[in-house]
Design goal:
The protein has helices at 10-27, 41-48, 53-65, 75-103, 118-121, 128-145, 152-168, 178-197, 203-225, 237-253, 258-265, 267-287, 292-314, 318-325. With 328 residues, the protein is mainly α. It comes from Azospirillum oryzae.
Length: 328
């Protein structure tokens, strides 16, 4: 195994995160998506992973980032690559999605703002994650350029500050999805820490702590889903327990698998484009009065396979590779 490789099935884990994400958007929020009842098994299943889905994506990003972190002598190159990877697809794909959402018959979901410029500045649809992730990359890259987190002590201080921001920061305007960036920063840093300092923590101790955190978090979250406790948002201790405990546990438990690996290899394209294909399949099946089970399965498959096909087609031209999937 090469020195810069992680001893985990990270691509497969990305595939699992993609499947959870697409399934969530197929079901949708109340009044959107499949428009199932609040008490349906579909909504319960997707709500059960509410505090794990996006933390898992972000944790994986931190894992991979730490293999080749930003340094002061190549900081400008790092940001150019991130703008190409995140910025260009964000501008192009969010614009196309907005135009389709505001003009296509049968479209529903996230409310589209009246002024299109707002989708580039504020949180919009699932593209908020690209804004938040760029903010996270910016903050962590600057810390790494200053070598602030090279040692465990400095990393622990950064993690403590990130946890405090997760629990306390809330900006009313939420410019560039800064609130979500604060919510997810601890999970990104956890991924960095697992890559950077995993040799310092015995595997059993890490798994034991993660398993205990996950068990406590899931128990409290399930109690909230059943109405015994109030709802826990992303900026809560329960979200940190579920997200962090779930990410580390799944990292060690994820087995190799061809399907998960295929999905994970196209994870970014799937994230960018899954809503278009899943929503298209859902609209058609709704008009055909298909059963909920059929709608869910077909829309889920469409949301996974459609972006894979689009990614293959985008490779034909350099400009489509950059604009549609963020690849040079």
């Amino acid at each position: 195994m090469r020195k810069n490789m992680l001893p985990y099935h990270v691509v497969e884990l990305r595939g699992l995160a993609c499947i959870l994400l697409v399934a969530y958007h197929v079901v949708g929020i109340p009044g959107a998506g499949m428009q199932v009842a609040d008490g349906s098994v579909y909504r319960y299943a997707t709500d059960s992973f509410e505090l794990i889905r996006m933390p898992l994506f972000t944790f994986i990003s931190g894992l991979v980032y730490a293999l080749n972190p930003a340094r002061g002598d190549r900081l400008s190159t790092f940001f150019v690559k991130k703008l190409r990877r995140l910025g260009f697809p964000f501008l192009v794909v969010s614009t196309l999605f907005y135009l389709l959402q505001t003009h296509a018959p049968g479209a529903n979901g996230t409310a589209a703002p009246d002024s299109m410029w707002r989708i580039y500045v504020f949180s919009y649809a699932h593209f908020w994650y690209l804004q938040a992730l760029f903010l996270i990359f910016t903050g962590v890259a600057l810390l790494d350029a200053l070598h602030t987190m090279d040692r465990p002590g400095g990393f622990a201080l950064a993690m403590a500050a990130a946890v405090a921001a997760c629990l306390m920061v809330h900006v009313d305007s939420n410019v560039l999805s800064v609130n979500e960036a604060c919510f997810l920063l601890p999970h990104f840093l956890l991924g960095v820490g697992v890559t950077r300092f995993r040799a310092m923590v015995p595997r059993q101790a890490m798994l034991g702590a993660a398993g205990a955190a996950l068990a406590i978090g899931v128990a409290l979250h399930q109690a909230s889903l059943w109405g015994h406790l109030p709802h826990f948002g992303w900026n809560s201790g329960v979200a940190l327990l579920c997200g962090m405990g779930g990410a580390v546990t799944l990292l060690h438990a994820m087995p190799p698998g061809r399907v998960f690996r295929m999905v994970g290899a196209s994870s970014y394209a799937i994230y960018l484009h899954h809503a278009l294909f899943a929503a298209g399949a859902r609209v058609v099946l709704h008009r055909l009065n298909a059963a909920d089970g059929v709608i869910f399965c077909v829309a889920l498959i469409a949301g996974l396979i459609g972006p894979m096909v689009l990614e293959s087609l985008a490779r034909i031209r350099p400009w489509t590779r950059v604009a549609l999937v963020g690849k040079a």
